[in-house]
Design a protein that fits this description.
Blueprint lengths: L11 E4 L8 H12 L4 E4 L7 E7 L4 E7 L2 E5 L1 H6 L4 E9 L2 E5 L2 E5 L3 E5 L5 E5 L3 E9 H8 L8 E4 L4 H13 L10 H12 L6 H15 L8 H8 L3 H11 L3 H19 L5 H7 L5 H12 L3 H10 L1
Antiparallel strand pairs: 1-3, 2-5, 3-4, 4-11, 5-10, 6-9, 6-11, 7-8, 7-10, 9-12
C-alpha cells in the first residue's frame, strides 16, 4: 500500500494593490494581525500604502517576505495587549534603510542586516525609502527550546557581510519565499540557524556548518582557487571537521563544488549561448577548458557545445 504524500505548505500572498485607497491601511493592519504580527501603520505624506506580503506557515515557524513603499509601523502597548505575539521576531533587511525605535534607544538597519527582537515589547519601525525584508516569527516556547532562553533581553543585530550564518538563513528564506513558488523548507535547519545567530548554540552544529559552507561556496564558485582550506576558515572550523561534515551529507566537498559549478555552467550555456565554452568555464571557476568539457560530458552525458548549440537554435 502506497503512503500518500504530504503536500508542501503553500505561501499565501496579500497585497494592497488594487484596494480602495481609504481601506488600504485598515486591511493591511487586519491582515498582519491575523497572519504575522499585529501593528499600527501610517504612510509618509499623501501617498497611499502600496504593500505586498508573502506568508508561509510551517509546522512551527511563520515565514514572510514583505515589500512596501515608505511607511511607519508601530506596536504600542494596547496593540500588544490585544494581539500578543508570544514569539520572537527575526527581520532581515533586503532593500531600503529602516529604523527601529524601542525602549533602550534607536537602531538603524541597512540592507543585509538582521534584527532579532521581542515583538511583545513596544517598538516603532520606519521605512523612509521603502521596505523589502524577510520576517521569521518563532514561537516563544520554540525559541526557548533552541536557545535555552525565553526572553530576549535586548534586540540583536547581525550583518550579512560579516556573518556567513546570516547569509545561510537568507538563502533558505529566499528559496522558500518566491512569488512563483518556493521549494521545500528545512524548518529544523532554520531553527538551528536562528539559534546560532542569537548565541544560544544550535542543537545541530554540523547542520549549521554544512549550510554555512554551502552558502560560502555558492558565493565563490567563480574563484578557481576555492578549496577546503578557504571554506573551513570562512565557516570557522577545521578542514578535517568540514570534510567529515560533508562526508556525512553523502557528497564530499570537492564533489559538491564541482557539481555546483557544472549546474551553473549549464544554466549559463542555455541562457547566454553567445558565450564561448571557454568563457563559460572561466566564469564558473574552471581553470582549464579541457577539464571543464570532460567533467561536463561525464556529469550530464552531453557536450557543453551541444547545450550551447541547442540554445542557439531555440
Amino acid at each position: 500500500m502506497t503512503t500518500p504524500s504530504v503536500p508542501l505548505p503553500r505561501a499565501v500572498s496579500f497585497s494592497t494593490t488594487g484596494l480602495p485607497e481609504a481601506q488600504k491601511i485598515a486591511l493591511w493592519e487586519d491582515h498582519n494581525a491575523q497572519a504575522l504580527i499585529g501593528l499600527r501603520c501610517r504612510v509618509l505624506g499623501e501617498t497611499a500604502l502600496d504593500a505586498t506580503e508573502l506568508n508561509l506557515q510551517l509546522e512551527q515557524l511563520h515565514l514572510a517576505r514583505v515589500r512596501g513603499n515608505p511607511h511607519v509601523v508601530e506596536r504600542p502597548a494596547e496593540v500588544i495587549r490585544r494581539t500578543p505575539a508570544d514569539a520572537i521576531a527575526v527581520y532581515l533587511t533586503l532593500a531600503g534603510e529602516a529604523f527601529f525605535y524601542h525602549d533602550d534607544g534607536v537602531l538603524t538597519l541597512r540592507p543585509g542586516q538582521l534584527l532579532v527582537c521581542d515583538p511583545d515589547r513596544p517598538f516603532v519601525r520606519g521605512f523612509s525609502r521603502g521596505l523589502e525584508e524577510f520576517a521569521v516569527k518563532v514561537p516563544r516556547a520554540v525559541f526557548r527550546e533552541v536557545t535555552a532562553d525565553a526572553a530576549l533581553r535586548a534586540p540583536l543585530v547581525r550583518d550579512v557581510t560579516g556573518d556567513v550564518t546570516v547569509r545561510s538563513l537568507r538563502r533558505l528564506l529566499d528559496r522558500a519565499l518566491r512569488p512563483d513558488g518556493g521549494g521545500a523548507v528545512d524548518e529544523r535547519l532554520a531553527l538551528d540557524l536562528v539559534a546560532a545567530l542569537v548565541g544560544g548554540g544550535a542543537t545541530r552544529p554540523a547542520a549549521v556548518h554544512l549550510a554555512n559552507a554551502r552558502a560560502f561556496i555558492e558565493e565563490h564558485l567563480t574563484d578557481p582557487n576555492l578549496g577546503a582550506g578557504r571554506v573551513a576558515a570562512a565557516v570557522g572550523v577545521s578542514q578535517r571537521h568540514l570534510s567529515r561534515t560533508f562526508a556525512g551529507s553523502g557528497v564530499s566537498l570537492p564533489r559538491f563544488v564541482l557539481e555546483r559549478r557544472l549546474v551553473r555552467a549549464r544554466a549559463l550555456l542555455a541562457s547566454s549561448p553567445d558565450l564561448s565554452v571557454g568563457e563559460v568555464a572561466a566564469r564558473c571557476g574552471f581553470g582549464s577548458v579541457d577539464t571543464f568539457s570532460a567533467a561536463f560530458r561525464e556529469h550530464f552525458g552531453v557536450r557543453a557545445t551541444q547545450v550551447r548549440g541547442a540554445a542557439r537554435s531555440a
